[in-house]
TrEMBL record:
Family named by the database record: Belongs to the autoinducer-2 exporter (AI-2E) (TC 2.A.86) family.
Classification via InterPro entries: AI-2E-like
Keywords linked to the UniProt accession: Membrane, Transmembrane, Transmembrane helix
Subcellular location: Membrane
Main location: membrane
Biased composition (Pro residues): 1-10
Disordered: annotated segments: 1-25
One GO cellular component term noted in the UniProt record for this chain: membrane
Protein name in UniProt: Predicted PurR-regulated permease PerM
Domain of life per record: Bacteria
Keyword Transmembrane helix: yes
Organism: Methylobacterium phyllostachyos
Membrane topology: Multi-pass membrane protein
Amino acid sequence: MPPITKPARPPARIAEAPPLPPHEQARSQGAARVLLVLALSALGLWILHRFLPALAWAVVLAIALFPLYNKLERRFPPGKHNLLLPSLMTAAVALVFLAPLAVLGVQAAREAHDVADFVRNAEANGIPAPEFLQHLPYGAAQATAWWNENLNHAQAGTDLLHRFENHSVIGTSRDLGREIVRRIVLFGFSLVALFFLFRDWRTVRDQSLTACQKLFGPRGERVARQMVASIHGTVDGLVLVGLGEGVLLGIVYYFAGVPHPVLLGAFTAVAAMIPFGAAIAIAIAALLLVAAGATKAALVVAAAGLVVTFVADHFVRPALIGGTTKLPFLWVLLGILGGVETFGLLGLFVGPAVMAALVLLWREFTQGHDEKV
């Protein structure tokens, strides 16, 4: 007789969670997407944080040079792969930055022989008192006596030169070398990013405007356009005006007999891009003339520099920057100075752009309604 088997007990069912209502499910998925986007954005920024300044420089240069690039593109339509014109523009930008450095290097090599002679003479005989000490209006005798007592003998020159041979100076030189290498790498990355911005500028523009429209509505697009206009105005008001100041004052340096007028004019142009920075370069030129005994020429340089910088800072720059962005020059000045303090030279363009966006938002807020695009 076959054994009697008990029927198998059906497996216990696991209680399933009731499905969420559609609106709650959509809300939870939206929150998960936001968290994922924030996490990935933070991770991406952390990965790229050392290259963000280089990328920002590429964006600034692309915005500043876009009108010129657009004209060239209309004159010479791009081919199938659109590589030639972006490559030429990128190479031109690299040349603009590298050519002055090459000139500076050649000039430094020429001066190396004179510097070596000065070092050998200072180590052997000390450092003689400069001639301008004898022409000081007050304290000329005391200043000359102090110099002769402390610096105008062989032992003083040897002691002074030995201070530049300690480990701290060597360590500083190494740090400077590493910083130079890092800057070169970042500059190369900026050029690569600039090439792709030139090549794909339509895609970048359309995607940026679409993102601003979706995230912030018409106001976002207006803010983006205002920031772009601010960068254009800043380039015209700072870079071009600074270059003009450097050229004019370089001519003054040449006729006044300032040593190395070309290099000092280039330094003046760079310094003039920062408000009140040209005064430092002009003061250096005047002091060099005073040290050479040319007091009248130093006064001419100081007076010419005062006139040029006064006209540029009080008339030309406010018209160019404020006229483009409808931004009061006080806020332009604060944006430039605060931007330089926070971001370095990049702040010359970032600071005014942020101020322009804030002033636009403030005006719309105080008006009580949004203007339609």
